[in-house]
Design brief:
Blueprint (H helix, E strand, L loop, with lengths): L9 E7 L6 E6 L3 H5 L5 E6 L4 E6 L5 H9 L3 H6 L3 E9 L2 E7 L5 H7 L2 H11 L9 H10 L9
Antiparallel strand pairs: 1-2, 2-4, 3-4, 3-5, 5-6
Amino acid sequence: MRLQQYLNEEYHSRIKTSYAKTTFEVFVNPSRKEFGEFKQDVRFIADLDSKNVYIYHWDGPLHEEAWEQINGTYLRNDINNGRIFAGVATKRRGKWITNQGDGESNMDNYLHDLQVRDISKYLKKIAWADKYINITEYVKTELKMVGKLSQMDI
């Protein structure tokens, strides 16, 4: 029973794109084995409230389209209220690292608009997701680029 609380990995579903006939598998809180199925970048959406990370093939639907199929809500609203982080990750030295926030949904704008007083709280809010995909370093880099974090803060 104890082990079950740590095993959150599951196959979620298949999602479609509006531009192709192909469907794409979506994994929630993927295991190493499931991550192993991806040889290239992955798209991901981290639901910071439910603590679920959804991953699918980088060539799959844009985050907006995927989130509507997964959750039934509008992605930009959920980004703007700090509920989700959407991006693309690459495998480097055996770990999945965020290499870009979702541009279509203004993920980086959300980060750039964070108030300095809220940065620490946001970094704590996303820290759990680093178990799957390192988001924290990307966020810190983005905040540093817009002058909201100094070299000493990183």
